Amino acid sequence: MGPDGPHLLERDALRLAVRTLTAADTARWDAFVAACPEATFFHRAGWKTVIERAFGHRTHYLFAERDGTIVGVLPLTEIKSRLFGHALISNAFCVYGGIAATDEDARQALDTHARALARQLCVGHLEYRNLRPFHRDWPTQDLYYTFRKEIAPDVETNLKAIPRKQRAMVRKGMKHGLKAEFDGDVERFYALFADNVHRHGTPALPRRYFALLKEVFGADCDVLIVTHAGRPVSGVLTFWFRDEVLPYYAGDVPVARELAANDFKYWALMRHACERGYRVFDYGRSKRGTGQFDFKKNWGFEPQPLHYEYDLVRLPAIPQHNPANPKYRLFIALWKRLPLPVANALGPAIVKNLG
């Protein structure tokens, strides 16, 4: 480096500014997300609209800009709840988040701004949901894992890549005459989703949230429904991003297990993605020790730890607002006993604050 090198670097850093996303910046933000290797579907600007309109939460979408060019983004959602506390999360209702940037100056500027904002807002904690570690000095937890695998360009190769026992379940679904079709709305899916989470003792997200996902993300958000003799038995709401397919929300009825409808559902989606030229199947997040975790492993997907990092601003420890927490066992048992219409009416007011 020449004698002016350090001074040039300092001037380059001085040209960097952190700004808050406005409607006028949305196209530039999404163009950056589409091009940045670190960015995910959950960094898209549309989540700001969905979260604000579905839940009423305040959002703080920050971007770093140098000479008029976006070089980093950080979507943040502020959740303030009497039950679950006050948090700043990147990104709430999403499995991935954190800072996506093209250089370290942008990354550090966004991080500094977020930490200052967390203290200005007096939140309990700031949370980054990272695919890779960033703040190794922050408290973290190894509760969540993601499952990602490349899709072969040939349909039959993908079928043969599924381990034998799980492949037999896919064929079982075929023998039962299951059909897979895409819906233009979320009505059939929501009935399956709400019934499923109720059986597991979990409050359901509101129908409006899923309708907004379809409205805001358009063709990049699909609903696949599996039917048996014309009756919906399983469904999945899926995101499409670059060359990736992300089955994100799912639901089914009890008979789906004996019909192997869930295996058939994910195979139908993988086959469709293969035929469309997609190259990565992202099975999403699961907690260690759960049936979902084991199901995805049985498909031949290797679990990859997610790095959820916490800046404890006012809290003494990482909050544990998840069904694995023993203190929620009684609540889960009672919730299962509620009539489904009552659970669907009460659930959104609770789950909107879990993020």
From TrEMBL:
InterPro entries registered for this protein in UniProt: Acyl_CoA_acyltransferase, BioF2-like_GNAT_dom, PEP-CTERM_FemAB-rel, PG_Glycine_Bridge_Synth
Residue ranges constituting the BioF2-like acetyltransferase domain according to the UniProt record: 164-297
Q: Which Gene3D superfamilies match?
A: 3.40.630.30
**Superkingdom of origin:** Bacteria
Q: Which Pfam families match?
A: Acetyltransf_6
Q: What is this protein called?
A: FemAB family XrtA/PEP-CTERM system-associated protein
